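Record type: monomer structure entry
Structure origin: computed from sequence
Chain ID: A
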Amino acid sequence: MVAIKTRTIFVAVIGISLLAAAGCETAAQTGAAVGVLAGAGIGQAVGGTAGATIAGAAIGGAAGYMIGNEQDKMEARARPVRIHEEMDFVVVNVTNSNGSISRVRLWREGPGFVGTRGEYYNHLPTQDELRPIYGF
């Protein structure tokens, strides 16, 4: 009878963890769900009792949450840098002689712009100014 209860709890923990992992929006949530699943499995394998399964799930969930939360923090710190980088460049489309388009990425530098080949423009260049360098 005890073995049936332990297996039932183990299966329930696995099912709940899989459902939770499917709806996770953050690394902390995913880490907690995976941690619960791994912890329950380890608790069941080591202890073989319902208490060991539950304790393993609790410890695994807490550890998984902490790891995922740190990943979320690192991602949040990196996000403003990416947004700033995206704001510091413009793309000018250069229409080529065959009708195709070359996309030229220019970075803002002071009052002007720098092309990918290192050339400096003191204004936002037009496609006619960029065509000799980037077009064909």
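Annotation 1: Helices lie at 2-22, 27-47, 50-87, 127-134.
Annotation 2: The beta strands are 89-95, 101-109, 112-114, 120-121.
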